Each structure stands twice: as C-alpha cells, then as structure tokens.
Amino acid sequence: MRQGTPGTHRFAYGRKVGEFIVDADVMARARFGTSQLTETLAALKMLRSAAVPPWHRPWADVHAAAFRERLAGDPVGTALLDAAFGPTWTADFLTVPPSAPDLTIDEELGFLESLDDGAVRADLEVATGPLTPALTATGLAATAAALLRWTWAHTVRDEWPRRLRVLRADVVSRTARLSGGGWSAALDGISPGVRWLANGRLQVNAAPYPPRDVRGRDLLFIAATGPGGWVSWRLPDTYAVVYPVTGVLAGGPAPLPDALVRLLGRTRARLLAALDAPQSTTALTARTGLPLGSVGGHLRVLLDAGLLERRRSGREVLYWRSDAGRTLLAAADEGH
C-alpha cells in the first residue's frame, strides 16, 4: 500500500515491504501523530468487514445499515471499493499518508482529488486485477473522496474529540517511551510484525518481503482505531506506519447496571465495563476523563479482587477483564 505523486515514477509497482532501512536523521525527524483520513479509512474497512472485533462491534452495528444504504445508491462507488480492498493489498490512492500529522480530512483529501482516472485504475488493478465495466466511469477520485467524506461525516466526526483524546494519549505514551528507552521501547507492542531491529533496520511486516531504503525521507507513525495496521508511502518523500489502538470504539459510556454500581461503586464499575480490550492507565484516563492517580488506584482494587488481569508492555501495564470480571459484568447485565 503506497502512493506516488503525480508525475513521479512509481517504482516496484505493487511490491510489499518487509523492512525500512533508516538512519539517525530519519529517526530523529520521525513523528507520532493522528490522521483524520487514516481514521476514516479504518472505519470504512471495518464497515465492509464481516469479521469486526468485539470491541468495535457496537460502533459497527450503529452504522452498518446506513453504510449499506449509501452504497446501494452508488454502483460506481461500490465497484470501486470492491476493487480497492484486495486480500493482501489496498489500493494506493486510499492509503496515501498525510504530508504531516494532525491535518484535517479536507487537507488530506486534496491529494486524492488531484489524481486522474488512469492513476486510480492503475492502483485498483494492482489491488485486485482486471476491472469491472463500472470502473470505466470518469471521476473515480471524486467518487472515492465522496465515500470517504460520507464515512467521516456519518461515522467518525461526532466522536472524533473522544477518539482523539485516546489516540493522543497513546502518542504521548510512546513519545515518553522514546525519550526513556529509545525506538525499541517506543515501538514495543505497537503492531504485529513491527519492531525495531539492529543496525538501522525497522521491521514493518513479519513476512519475508524485501527491504526498502528510506534514508533521507520522512517517517510518520499514525495511531488509528482500526483492528490492524498498514504501511504506506507518498513518493518520493514520505513514509508511514499506521498502527492500531484497540478498545476505542465502544461508544459513549453505556448505562451501568445498578447492582454493579452498588457492589463496586460507580467509578470502578465504569472502569470494569470499559476494559473489554487491554488498555493502559493512560488510555483509560483519556477515555474516561478521570484523573490518572484515581484510575490507577481503582485498577489496583479491581485487580486485587480478581476482576482484572494485567501484563507489562514495554514501559506500560495493560489491564483487561478477567474471567471473573466478565462473569460479574454479564450477571449484572442480565439482572439490569
């Protein structure tokens, strides 16, 4: 998944990448950040997926019907998405990284909207092969941008402030790890297949694909709420690693069962309900708005009661519901 700029030679068309070859200058300039377009693409991929992770399912259930209705009125857009998402490759025009972190979606979509139909069709053929007659239509870049804008406006925008707090909490945490332990610590557990190797090598895929030399280029690490990550590039200057931050899309705080609140107290009940996927205290603080010290104290009580499990990931500790915690929550929900 990578993208060239108009008029730029596209090398190694469709090649997968296993490692980035970097140097001290690349890593000194490398930045963590967020991307509204990346977040929107992750949402679009989940809305099309038949296998949505449990912590994303409530969000997907809310928006799936409207998404199907949107596609029903857009046969060209439907054909474009069917061709864009291959089994091992996503069309480059959808995955182009931002020129800098934390831009607006309109700023990011300007590049996509500049592409001509030939460039879009070429990317689609790399992703899935020969194209259907529907994709002989003109204005394919505008069709793709319209689908992304719809997905942003109807499924992401209203909860973007909450998502952004959680994504930024992860960015702050990884930046702190970088300061204290270098890139090996900052990238620990970031995404399956991504890890810092020795001698200026950054593994970006567990599969044995060829390396790519990105010395002299810019490198971004983009936090997103999708169930997986990917690598993309905007030739010749910008490369990006998108990595997943789990447990963010559970929606706003659901009503808590009265029995659970009486047993644990409202704050501990809220934290137990939030821990459907492993999360750090930093992420929970951003998600709930509670003070960091308060979150840590309540987590210790829940852990001592056997309702949580934990493990260390780099410099952070991740918490999630134990079997006893899941059983307690399920029983409280049944009696609610």
Automatic annotation (TrEMBL):
InterPro entries: ArsR-like_HTH (IPR011991), HTH_ArsR_DNA-bd_dom (IPR001845), Metal_resp_trans_reg (IPR051011), WH-like_DNA-bd_sf (IPR036388), WH_DNA-bd_sf (IPR036390)
GO molecular function terms listed in the Swiss-Prot or TrEMBL record: DNA binding; DNA-binding transcription factor activity
Gene3D superfamilies: Winged helix-like DNA-binding domain superfamily/Winged helix DNA-binding domain
CDD domains named in the record: HTH_ARSR
Keyword annotations of the record: DNA-binding, Transcription, Transcription regulation
Source organism (scientific name): Geodermatophilus nigrescens
Segments forming domain HTH arsR-type: 259-334
Domain of life: Bacteria
Name of the featured protein: Helix-turn-helix domain-containing protein
One Pfam family recorded for the sequence: HTH_20
